[in-house]
Amino acid sequence: MIELKSAAEIDRMAVAGRFVGELLGELRDIAAVGVNLMDLEHHARRRIKQRGAESCYWDYAPSFGRGPFRNVLCLSVNDAVLHGLPRDYVLRDGDLLSIDMAVGIDGWAADSALSVVVGTADPADLTLIEATEVALEAAIAAAQPGGRLGDISAAISEVASAYGYGVNAEFGGHGIGRTMHEAPHVANKGRAGRGLKLDPGLTIAIEPWLCRTTDKIVFDDDGWTIRSADGSRTAHSEHTVAITASGPQVLTHAQNSQTGMDHEERVIKRQ
């Protein structure tokens, strides 16, 4: 069942979204050569507790994974792209780190992710991250009221193709609101003009993720961490977005991982 949110409910989601974006910006700034992934995890735990928020990841137990997730962040390094478990790992020069998090505040959730290179960046990694960010912006711009879910999916896959990357359709975005994962599924590959009509009040997490030289994935033995099948680098970008009568509204403020510029909470209108 898909629940359309009122303007007041979207405003309440935006409160959670602002906190998610702020905390992601902090984590991006903390991530550096020599920093342990568990330092990022514990910083996020402290901030979530201080805010009186709740992690949507803690005790999350989907059909995949082994046992409930007992962390507040997904930290995926290099060839890991989704659901990376925080662990005792010290970031090295040139590592590509994806940070994904979702929290709830007063019963409303928001979800966002970004990728960043710590230390000396390989230009190919920066291009990969850029592709996910451009795909995300294109998908947001395509999320127009009266359009179709396939418009969002097609925008992502078109950008990926233009950059020369394949798209894996097994994991993608999702509805979000009272819980982290709601209907509908938002695929990263699709056909424009097809699928669910985008009505005002629909709230979704849009999350393009890409592997540099494959569209195939494998799971670690932990049942959670998803990696590129060929060991190539990966990247992931995500925002929580509300469809409004005026256009898509981004609810999660997150710093751009390459420019450091803020994504304003905004309504994007098709030009």
Automatic annotation (TrEMBL):
Instruction: Give every Peptidase M24 domain span.
Output: 12-245
Provide the residue positions that the database annotates as binding substrate. Answer: H83, H181
Q: Which GO terms describe its molecular function?
A: initiator methionyl aminopeptidase activity; metal ion binding; metalloaminopeptidase activity
Give the SUPFAM superfamilies listed for this entry. Answer: Creatinase/aminopeptidase
- What's the EC number here? 3.4.11.18
Q: What's a single GO BP term from this record?
A: proteolysis
Report one GO cellular component: cytosol
Give the binding site residues for a divalent metal cation 1: D100, D111, E238
Out of the domains of life, which is the source? Bacteria
Cofactor(s) it depends on = Co(2+); Zn(2+); Mn(2+); Fe(2+)
Catalytic reaction(s) noted? Release of N-terminal amino acids, preferentially methionine, from peptides and arylamides
List positions binding a divalent metal cation 2.
D111, H174, E207, E238
What InterPro entries does this protein's entry cite? Creatinase/aminopeptidase-like, Pept_M24, Pept_M24_MAP, Pept_M24A_MAP1
Q: Which UniProt keywords apply?
A: Aminopeptidase, Hydrolase, Metal-binding, Protease
How does the cofactor bind to this protein, according to its record? Binds 2 divalent metal cations per subunit. Has a high-affinity and a low affinity metal-binding site. The true nature of the physiological cofactor is under debate. The enzyme is active with cobalt, zinc, manganese or divalent iron ions. Most likely, methionine aminopeptidases function as mononuclear Fe(2+)-metalloproteases under physiological conditions, and the catalytically relevant metal-binding site has been assigned to the histidine-containing high-affinity site.
HAMAP family (UniProt xref): MetAP_1
Assembly and partners? Monomer.
Q: Which family does it belong to?
A: Belongs to the peptidase M24A family. Methionine aminopeptidase type 1 subfamily.
What is this protein's function per UniProt?
Removes the N-terminal methionine from nascent proteins. The N-terminal methionine is often cleaved when the second residue in the primary sequence is small and uncharged (Met-Ala-, Cys, Gly, Pro, Ser, Thr, or Val). Requires deformylation of the N(alpha)-formylated initiator methionine before it can be hydrolyzed.
Q: Which NCBIfam families match?
A: met_pdase_I (TIGR00500)
Q: Can you name this protein?
A: Methionine aminopeptidase
- Give the species this sequence originates from: Mangrovihabitans endophyticus
Gene name?
A: map
